[in-house]
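ok new one. same drill as before - structure tokens go in, u give me an amino acid for every spot. 106 of them this time. try not to just spam alanines like last time pls lmao
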């Protein structure tokens, strides 16, 4: 009897998971910025149509909450070594510049 074990590429999966978490963090920051900007518009009374504005604000908050939930779930799914790698990569200035450029591109 022949048993085939598929080993896969777990190191690539770990790198993909870390990259996904980093991308989600930048996306979350972007969504939070949009929500803050909309709230600032509301506070400064520069809203023309309150109904449309309310829809925009609710949509932005919903998107932000969804991204935050996904971020928490994916970060919790990281192992110990992936979490350590994530912390190292967060301190990498070159990576931060690249991620900021990628976030602006999206």
């Amino acid at each position: 009897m022949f048993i085939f074990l598929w080993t896969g590429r777990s190191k690539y999966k770990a790198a993909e998971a870390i990259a996904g978490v980093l991308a989600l963090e930048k996306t979350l920051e972007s969504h939070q910025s949009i929500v803050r900007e909309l709230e600032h518009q509301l506070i400064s009374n520069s809203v023309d149509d309150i109904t449309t504005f309310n829809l925009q604000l609710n949509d932005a908050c919903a998107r932000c909450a969804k991204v935050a939930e996904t971020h928490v779930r994916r970060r919790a799914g990281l192992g110990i070594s992936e979490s350590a790698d994530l912390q190292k990569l967060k301190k990498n200035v070159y990576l931060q510049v690249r991620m900021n450029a990628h976030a602006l591109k999206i």
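The helical segments are 10-43, 50-76, 80-90, 93-105. and btw The radius of gyration is 19 Å.
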